[in-house]
Structure formats: structure tokens, C-alpha cells
Design brief:
Length: about 350
């Protein structure tokens, strides 16, 4: 994907029908587009950062829609460039008509359709957002729980960025002390000891650990906790999935090997998305009934390898068997296993 500095336009609201739809334009020299599309009185202009109710016009000056026009002058906009937002009704057809008219009116200035994420990309290039905030925009859009949305909002507000910048400043300061000690060995002052460099290093390590933990928590809130249901055939894995999901998402029969591929259902527990993954019953590949079951068993082990938690399902009437013990020896040692 390549980017340039030409003005860009796109529908900024989600696909589908709604009460309001927004067409956004960002770039230089937008006056011609404003004059062509907005039905303003002769000589009138949009007041920056004020909503103006107007008619959106086609090439023949006929009405496409009516709504609000907002003009944000650079650098006081989301992208840091001049931005025009046209807020009309949220019908897909009328929004496409309005977008097409804007692109037509902006041909002379090179107005083109924006690529996915390009508005935020320009905000990053123009120092309106740093990289962690730009990533937080995507996380906020994709958030599937309230906890995930709050976590992304904190990153977007700059909390995570500030922690990183503070950590960098501490590391730079510590580096200066080390360099001073190496460059001036004849001085009687021990810069490292005087400044408690060891204590600073311990504190930096603690902050770094906290940042790693926060990042891991954010990833869990975004992607969910993967809990894999693993065990021998016909021990109740699919039945448990159906109970947890509250619906019949997996086929359950008395026939061993009914589940041939993994089945995933996502539930929420205290605001955290939990991906419950049902898998094909584990047994020796040589004992598989057919090629399809063999592939299913291989996929089970692949799911186990990427699990956050393994729920090892046993037949309560028999308890752990020798085969179960052999299977658990193959589970990743760094993944919690529950029985």
C-alpha cells in the first residue's frame, strides 16, 4: 500500500443504513469542493469548526441531500490537514451519490478515494497521534466488550504513550550516568553510586514489567482468552461447549469422533471475551477412523499449542487413564492445564 499527499475522501461511517452518514474529505485547497457541493449563498463561506445546515448539490445544482457541513482548518483537525465533513442521512445510495459528487468536484485538485486507515495514517504523519494511539483507534473500533473499549480509550488518551516516554527518559538518564563514569574515571565522584544507578535500574525493570503486563492484558481484552477443550473422544467436550455457550453450537452424538474440526464460541466473563474452543477427540493417529479424523486430531494439537488455558476433559466414570497421562505429557509446559 502506497500513500501520497493528494486530498482524499471516503464515507466515514460504517456500511449499512442509519440515521446519519458522514463523508469526510482531507487535504489542501478544499474551497472548490465546498463551493460545488454545498448550497451556500453567493459569497458565503463555512465558518471553521461550526456546523452549517445546507443542501448538498449534484452537478446540475439539484439536491442530493440536506445536512450539516463542518470545515476544520489545518492543523486543528483529526488529520492535521484541512478537513471537510458532510453529515447527511445514512442511506448507502445517498452516501455513495454524495461521495461520487465530491470526487467529481475535486478532480482539479486530485481528490481521490481514501485507502483503508488513511485518515489515521495522515494523523500519525502530522503528529496528531503517535503509533500507540493510532493502534488504539483500531482497538477501540474492534472492541467487543466494555473492558476492551475502556482499555483502548486509555491508550488513545495517551496514558500508554506517556508511560513509554517516561521509561525512555529514565533509560537515557541512566545511560548518561554510565557514560560520565566511563569518560571521567579520574574524578573522585562515582556518578553511578551517587545517583543510585542500581536502584534506578531496579525501578526501570519494574516499570518495564508493568508495561509488558499491561500490553498482555490489552491483547487479551482485544483478542480474548483462548480456552481449549481437549480430551479423548466422546468424553463430553461438545456437551460442555453447548452448556457454556447456552445453545447447541456443536453436534453431540454417542458416536466417538463426531467432532472432526475445532468449533469456537465466544462468551463474556466479567467483561473479558473468552473463546471456548471445542476440538476433535485426542487419540493415537494410527487409531483414527479415517483421514478426516486424522486431520482433526492434528488440528486439535495445533489448537492446544496456541491455547492460553487447556481444559482437559475426562470421563468421570473412569477417571484419568494411561492415555490421558500420555496426552498431558504433550501439553505445553507454559500453559495452565485444568481438569
Amino acid at each position: 500500500m502506497t500513500f501520497d499527499s493528494l486530498p482524499i475522501a471516503a464515507i466515514a461511517t460504517a456500511p449499512g443504513r442509519g440515521g446519519i452518514g458522514v463523508v469526510r474529505i482531507s487535504g489542501k485547497n478544499l474551497d472548490a469542493v465546498i463551493a460545488a457541493v454545498c448550497g451556500l449563498a453567493p459569497g458565503a463561506q463555512l465558518v471553521p469548526r461550526h456546523a452549517t445546515y445546507t443542501t448538498f448539490l449534484d452537478r446540475e445544482r439539484g439536491m442530493i441531500d440536506q445536512g450539516l457541513a463542518l470545515h476544520f482548518k489545518a492543523p486543528h483537525s483529526y488529520t492535521g490537514e484541512d478537513v471537510l465533513e458532510l453529515q447527511g442521512h445514512g442511506g448507502p445510495v445517498v452516501l455513495q451519490m454524495l461521495l461520487a459528487r465530491c470526487l467529481e468536484a475535486g478532480q482539479e485538485i486530485g481528490l481521490r478515494l481514501a485507502q483503508p486507515g488513511e485518515f489515521t495514517h495522515r494523523a500519525f504523519l502530522n503528529d496528531k497521534l503517535d503509533l500507540t494511539q493510532a493502534e488504539a483507534v483500531a482497538d477501540l473500533i474492534e472492541a467487543s466488550t466494555e473492558a476492551a473499549a475502556k482499555s483502548a480509550s486509555q491508550s488513545l488518551s495517551g496514558v500508554f504513550s506517556k508511560a513509554i516516554h517516561d521509561l525512555v527518559a529514565q533509560v537515557i538518564h541512566l545511560r548518561m550516568l554510565v557514560e560520565a563514569t566511563l569518560d571521567f574515571p579520574e574524578e573522585e565522584i562515582d556518578f553511578l553510586e551517587k545517583s543510585d544507578a542500581r536502584g534506578q535500574l531496579v525501578r526501570i525493570r519494574a516499570v518495564l514489567t508493568q508495561i509488558f503486563n499491561q500490553a498482555a492484558q490489552g491483547a487479551m481484552l482485544r483478542d480474548g482468552l483462548n480456552i481449549v477443550l481437549a480430551g479423548q473422544p466422546n468424553v463430553g467436550k461438545s456437551s460442555l461447549l453447548n452448556v457454556l455457550a447456552g445453545s447447541e453450537v456443536a453436534i453431540v452424538t454417542p458416536i466417538a469422533g463426531t467432532t472432526r474440526d475445532k468449533v469456537t464460541e465466544t462468551i463474556q466473563i466479567e467483561g473479558v471475551p473468552v473463546n471456548i474452543i471445542d476440538t476433535a477427540g485426542i487419540r493415537d493417529v494410527a487409531d483414527a477412523g479415517d483421514e478426516v479424523e486424522r486431520i482433526g486430531i492434528e488440528r486439535t494439537w495445533a489448537a492446544v499449542a496456541h491455547a492460553d488455558v487447556i481444559l482437559h476433559i475426562l470421563d468421570a466414570s473412569m477417571g484419568p487413564t494411561r492415555a490421558d497421562e500420555q496426552f498431558i505429557d504433550r501439553f505445553p509446559t507454559n500453559v495452565p492445564v485444568m481438569r
